[in-house]
């Protein structure tokens, strides 16, 4: 065991100590959390030198006990522990306690911990990695919803089929008896010229416009204000106008 350790004190301008520490090398001159060494190094007082680490610990504890701690109301030092090895006697503020609590809340679980949690929540480790049968899926679905899954009626299937057919043809439930995709479209250009197209599809293929945009303006009889069909007016041709 070497005799390289020492104890030291930081002094206020009035020469009263405000911190007692022990160290080796340049420890006494290094800034640490909560305690700054005095800018004037003449106010760093070396109390004892050529000590073993154990002797330095003991002398540090002795000096803190003699001079007392401000946080405990027993003296003049800003030390937050009783000195020696470890943090015995440390008094944490409520703010520090809250920060530690928040930090612990954000800690991530280890993979081993995650695995155990997963196994515990499933309740059956033998099922890990296995796929449920269709029958099992159906039963779980019924258990979750509380309503048995019933097959669609023929009427329901017919309505779904009609709705899907309308979407494929660009109708989206607004077609009436004749879907809009097959209707002729009148396009009026900014210079007043007009052109008739056989369908929305032919408009999009010729002008490069978006099908949904053309359909919307045809239904509303409005002018497009953006994109490739900007300033073009669209409308469906009725039978009376053919």
Blueprint of the fold:
Layout: E1 5-11, E2 17-23, E3 44-51, H1 53-67, H2 94-105, H3 111-122, H4 134-145, H5 154-168, E4 185-188, E5 194-197, H6 200-207, H7 211-220, E6 233-236
Antiparallel strand pairs: 1-2, 1-3, 4-5, 4-6
Summary?
This protein has seven helices and six strands, in the order βββαααααββααβ.
Note down, in words, how this protein is organized.
With 242 residues, this protein is α+β, with helices and mostly antiparallel strands. It is 35% helix and 14% strand. The longest helix is centred in the first third of the chain and has 15 residues. About 3% of the residues have low confidence. Among the domains are: 107 residues, no CATH class; 62 residues, Orthogonal Bundle (Arc Repressor Mutant, subunit A), CATH 1.10.10.10. It has a three-stranded antiparallel β-sheet with strand order 2-1-3, covered by helices on one side.
């Amino acid at each position: 065991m070497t005799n390289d350790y020492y104890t030291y004190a930081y002094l206020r301008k009035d020469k009263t100590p405000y911190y007692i520490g022990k160290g080796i090398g340049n420890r006494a001159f290094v800034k640490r959390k909560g305690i700054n060494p005095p800018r004037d190094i003449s106010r760093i007082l070396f109390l004892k030198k050529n000590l073993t680490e154990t002797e330095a610990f003991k002398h540090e504890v002795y000096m803190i006990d003699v001079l007392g701690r401000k946080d405990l109301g027993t003296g003049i030092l800003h030390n937050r522990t009783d000195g020696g090895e470890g943090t015995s006697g440390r008094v944490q503020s409520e703010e520090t306690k809250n920060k530690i609590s928040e930090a612990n809340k954000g800690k991530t679980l280890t993979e081993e911990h995650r695995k155990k949690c997963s196994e515990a929540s499933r309740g059956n480790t033998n099922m890990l990695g296995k796929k449920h049968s269709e029958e099992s899926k159906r039963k779980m679905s019924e258990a979750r919803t509380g309503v048995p899954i019933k097959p669609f009626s023929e009427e329901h299937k017919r309505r779904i089929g009609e709705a899907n057919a309308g979407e494929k043809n660009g109708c989206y439930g607004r077609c009436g008896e004749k879907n809009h995709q097959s209707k002729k479209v009148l396009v009026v250009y900014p210079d007043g010229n007009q052109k008739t197209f056989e369908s929305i599809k032919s408009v999009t293929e010729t002008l490069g416009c978006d099908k949904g945009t053309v359909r919307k303006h045809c239904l509303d009889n409005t002018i497009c204000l953006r994109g490739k069909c900007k300033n073009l007016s669209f409308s469906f041709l009725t039978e009376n106008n053919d």
